[in-house]
Amino acid sequence: MKRTTILLPEELNARLRREAFRANISIAELIRSKLRGPKRRAAKRRAPVDPILKVAGIYIGPPISDNIDEELYGI
What we know:
The chain has 75 residues and is mainly α. The chain contains 4 helices and no strands.
């Protein structure tokens, strides 16, 4: 493999970073997959973590699911 350095405008670099983050791949792999074309897309490295699982089990107290609107919104 050959290393290449390119200069990108800030906006394009930010778009590449966001797309690579969403696909869970490196920016370099994203660029290589785009240059290869649509037939050989890069596979994700691992399944994304469900954000709700990051907070699961944090709340300790009585169940609030019965009165969720009241507890969250005061309705």
